[in-house]
Design a protein that fits this description.
single chain; Methyltransferase, Cobalt-precorrin-4 Transmethylase, Domain 2; Cobalt-precorrin-4 Transmethylase, domain 1; alpha/beta
Length: 275
């Protein structure tokens, strides 16, 4: 067998979602790299796979595990990488290992599997043709404020992850930057017995979390920012004025602004002359 790093998707709740190919690859592996040996051990036992050994690769150990994994790959071993649930590398360990293995010239294979982000998105009913995955927001500080501002302005559907004890705060913050009427979907316990998908405006979502204690990990799917429409004449004049301050002629400033805003050069030039 050829050595390779094999990313194996595992169930996000329902164990029946583990594919036959995933079971086969876990059985072929020389070592299974996982976040939690107990959890992965139970999964392997459930499907009748006896792994030769388990290697802990979590948020804390992944940087140190790179050398061990590369050494095994150099010896022609197959290393299966799993997370506690879902696809490795998606808000879970794996990104560093894939980058290091590919940079060293080793094969990287993928056994597709469940993903909470995709499951929540397609169940939401919000536009799924173009979307952005944001994962977990920073917990505090300027990083959180910047990401919230970016989410509020994003025209595509946004998919977030959130822990139950932080959900209410995140929803309140989203109301502040997006307004109370932006549509949102809260999906929790996906594929599990108590799966729930709640839909409504952000303000109602805050009330929902006040009335019902959040439990389980959440996928938050947020509708994209509405189209702001064409700029006003005053905004066009202001843009031309800024371009003129950089030393452009009136004609060149009008041409630049027209190209940037997607407007008629003649219309922008007429507004510039009025100013």
């Amino acid at each position: 067998m050829t050595g390779a790093l094999v990313l194996v998707g595992t169930p996000i709740g329902n164990l029946g979602d583990l594919t036959p190919r995933a079971i086969e690859e876990l059985g072929r592996a020389d070592v299974v790299a996982c976040e939690d040996t107990r959890r992965t051990g139970r999964l392997l036992a459930h499907v009748g796979v006896r792994a030769p050994s388990l290697l802990v690769v979590n948020d804390h150990t992944e940087p140190r595990a790179v050398g061990e994994v590369l050494s095994r790959l150099d010896r022609g071993q197959r290393v299966a990488l799993v997370s506690d649930a879902g696809m490795p590398g998606i808000s879970d360990p794996g990104e560093r290992l894939v980058a290091a293995a590919s940079a060293a010239g080793h094969r990287v294979e993928v056994v597709p599997g469940p993903s909470a982000a995709i499951a929540g998105l397609v169940a939401s009913g919000l536009p799924a043709g173009r979307f952005v995955f944001e994962g977990f927001l920073p917990r505090k500080g300027s990083g959180r404020r910047e990401r919230l501002a970016a989410v509020a302005a994003e025209p595509r559907t946004v998919v977030l992850y959130e822990a139950p004890h932080r959900l209410s705060r995140t929803l309140v913050d989203l109301v502040e930057v997006c307004g109370p009427t932006r549509r949102v979907v809260l999906a929790r316990e996906l594929t599990k017995l108590h799966e729930e998908v709640w839909r409504g405006p952000l303000a109602a979502a805050v009330e929902h979390c006040t009335d019902t204690e959040p439990r389980g990990e959440y996928v938050v799917v947020l509708d994209g920012a509405p189209d702001p429409g064409p700029p006003s004449d005053d905004q066009v004049r202001e843009a031309v004025a800024h371009a003129r301050q950089r030393g452009l002629s009136t004609r060149d400033a009008a041409a630049e602004v027209a190209g940037t805003l997607g407007l008629s050069k003649r219309h922008v030039y007429a507004l510039a002359l009025e100013a």
